[in-house]
Amino acid sequence: MATKKFMYVNRKAPYGTVYALESLEVVLIAAAFEQEVSLAFIDDGVYQIAKGQNTDGIGMKNFSSTYNALGDYEVNKLYVEKESLEERGLTADDLMPIMWEDEDEDWAEKPSVRIVSRAEMADILAEQEVTYSF
Asked: What pTM, to 2 d.p., does this model score?
């Protein structure tokens, strides 16, 4: 079965709706079926991979640590729009250090998160065969 390039675009905050959790679950399912999966975090979606999430006050389960499992499913292309970070007063240092292990380089750990400009994000999205927006 030929693989296609699937991009999952995350635009919503991690809690308050089901979009972020549903996106993550669909990504893990697609990756389990060996599809080429990438994620884009745009607008409030950048909060999905922010460090230090605490859901105690809202009565929802904190699922942010699940993003650390993406590397195990060979999902290692997480694109974060730089302008979305800046508009929310965030920097790359505010994001979780999501890593993957490169078997071609003796399992060296490498970062999965890539900060890209809005123009670069448009180019990346244009390259995808299938795009899902959450």
From this structure: 0.93
> Can you say whether the dihedral through the CA atoms of 113, 115, 121, 126 is positive or negative?
negative
Tokens 């499992």 — which residue? Answer: 69
Distance CA 83, CA 60 (A): 28
CATH number at 107 reads: 3.40.1260.10
Residues 6+ apart with CB under 8 A from 61: 55
Segment 69-79 shows an average pLDDT of 94
User: Where do runs of H (alpha helix) occur along 4-133?
Assistant: 19-32, 82-87, 118-126
Nearest CA to 73 among 23, 20, 32, 22? 32
Q: Could you tell me which residue, 56 or 97, shows the higher pLDDT? A: 97
**Mean pLDDT, range 110-117, rounded to an integer:** 97
124: containing domain = 5-133
